Amino acid sequence: MTVAATPVPRAPWRLWRSPYLWLATIHLLGDAVVVLTSGVLVLAAVMLMLLAFPLAMIRIPLTVWANRAVYGIASWERARARLTRGQEVQALVPPPRTGSWSEDALLALGDPGVWRQFTYYLMLLPLSFAWIFAVVAAWSIPPVLMALPLYYYRFAAAQAQLGPFTIDTTTKAVVVAVLAALFLALVSPLMMRWASAFDGWLAKMLLGPSETGVLAERVSQLVASRQQVVDSVEVERRRMERDLHDGAQQRLVSLAMTLGRAKNRLGDREPSVRTLIEEAHSEAMQAIAEIRDLTRGLHPPVLTDRGLDAALSAVAARSPVPVRLSVDVKPRPSLTIESIAYFVVTEALTNVAKHAEAAQAEVRVTRKGDVLRVEVRDNGRGGADPVRGSGLRGLTDRVSGVDGRLSVDSPPGGGTTLTAEVPCG
Hints:
single chain, 14 helices, five-stranded mixed β-sheet, elongated, Heat Shock Protein 90, alpha+beta, 3 domains, 425 residues
């Protein structure tokens, strides 16, 4: 991202106390030196990049080297802007190597970053002359005119000619000196600020990434960050499932077995104690079933081990509504995408069993390119509303969390079709 600091304060009386005023002046004067040094080097690099392009066919990468040289030279100018104006301009990034000599040379030749930086030095050529004139007009001419009352009478005929004006009296000379002093105090600092601001704007536009590029890079960073969050949540979900399965569930199984042995050993003695043991055993078995359902809802181990086909087959087998299942997902997507598809199907089939009054359901999971498509149909009463259904809203949020889309087509009396498309590239 490009962040240009204000070169100098806005108020003229504050400019005189600011080091930016003098640093901006030095920077503007230095533009002429930059044109004669860095500008010539960039021109030579661009010419070499063009002329050496055919050499890429015989594996001589002069075009690529010249491309990188332009980026290196432009980094000096960004460093100069940072030192004199406090302006941070993010560096442009050259095209990555592809491994093909000819393709690398072609990318280097068509690289927009090189041509933007080359354009900067071309535009700096006329601007450097303008900045020299501005510096002279701001800092040299006013002091000379301020001293006019002291020397104008030494000219021929005791008069000085300033354009169409003739200075032939002390009064006129004093007026010119006062105007020059006001110009020096109020206008000269503003001239430097305006010139430096324009010079900084030019550097921002041509030496740094465009606003579109900055936004695209930011979007890419946010997408990557969001994907990391989604993946970390999925990892944590699997850890919880593993801890519940290997920890609490195993302890409850051991407790249920101990209670069962205690009940068998007690026999018909102490009916009241036997009743309590039976109740405790029943509660332990119920808790085991609930934990098993909970762990299955978090992340079933079969999904990790054998993929969507096996996991969804188990879900279809447990469904109270007959389900026809078709899964074709090759190559296998990531575990995060598989988990989202799994929960879309399980939630949809749960809704079918609870609300649809359907006689049959169909689940189709397919992968076409980089898109995983999940489709769940039923022949129930329809009328499903994603706005009112918290389960459907949760599925929508989960699918959109990875740039996916979920749609529900559910006319009253016409069954329901739930479709989710999730990128899995």
